[in-house]
Specification:
11 strands, alpha/beta, 4 helices, two-stranded antiparallel sheet
Length: about 260
């Protein structure tokens, strides 16, 4: 028996962020679900990446780890570094070439700010990427108002999804891994595009939740002056990478 594990979504609703809990139907505009066995790997705790292990908050400014949501496979922790990131490079929008270039630069800057804490590398092919960022307005979500009808939700400026799948390498047993997909709207000012990329990358790197403080990158709403990555953001990221996960573990084979 096989099981399809579908993408899970972290969305930006207008100027505020909202978590959509539970599984959603596969969105084929992103990618098809990959079947894996019904059994999942055991939970494991892995050594910290060197950059996070070296991080020390000497002022003890705290974290918001209690706001982070573990998933059915534990915490969303990357096991292979550097994490490979692809940023869409539109080639057909010549009339808005300068605008596209500004979007790409802002997104790239938002990404690379995290490189100090987890090793990242930009790749030219989306098929090689662990995290893929598309220059597109996120699709509308359907809402159920409770009266038996459904309606389209508010327009969002950004969305992050993760997808679980099995990875085979040679004759080794398959392992459970994940990919992340980010939809990032081009219809914002450059400072907000950069801030949105910085925020969504925080989700994709494992911060599956939001901070209650506006001084943190992972605050649940946009602010007038977007902050840089804060010590509390990094403290939270470090605690996440100290937690157990099923990602990276071997998938038990089922008897034939």
């Amino acid at each position: 028996m096989k099981k399809y594990i579908t993408p899970v979504v972290m969305t930006c609703l207008g100027i505020t962020l909202s978590v959509l809990l539970g599984y959603r139907p596969t969105d084929t505009s992103l990618s098809a679900s990959v079947p894996i066995s019904l059994e999942l790997p055991a939970l494991q705790v892995y050594p910290l990446p060197a950059s996070l292990a070296a991080w020390q908050d000497v002022e003890n400014r705290g974290d918001y780890f209690d706001q982070i949501q573990p998933t059915d496979v534990g915490y969303l922790i990357w096991r292979q570094f550097p994490v490979r990131v692809y940023v869409e490079q539109p080639v057909s929008d010549r009339a808005n070439a300068a605008r596209v270039a500004a979007w790409t630069q802002a997104v790239t800057e938002g990404i690379t700010e995290w490189n100090r804490y987890l090793p990242l590398v930009l790749v030219a092919n989306p098929e090689q990427a662990d995290i893929t960022i598309w220059r597109v307005v996120p699709p509308l979500q359907r809402q159920n108002p409770g009266d038996g009808r459904s309606s389209l939700g508010r327009v969002r400026s950004a969305e992050t999804r993760y997808q679980l799948y099995s990875h085979h390498q040679g004759k080794d047993p398959p392992v459970l891994v994940h990919r992340c997909y980010i939809h990032l709207s081009p219809n914002q000012t450059i400072p907000y595009i950069r801030a949105a990329a910085r925020h969504e990358m925080g989700h994709a790197l494992g911060i599956w939740g939001h901070s209650p403080l506006p001084s943190d990158v992972m605050y649940f709403a946009q602010v007038r002056t977007p902050p840089p990555i804060s010590p509390r953001d990094v403290n939270t990221l470090k605690r996440i990478y100290e937690q157990p996960t099923r990602l990276g573990g071997q998938i038990p084979t089922q008897p034939t």
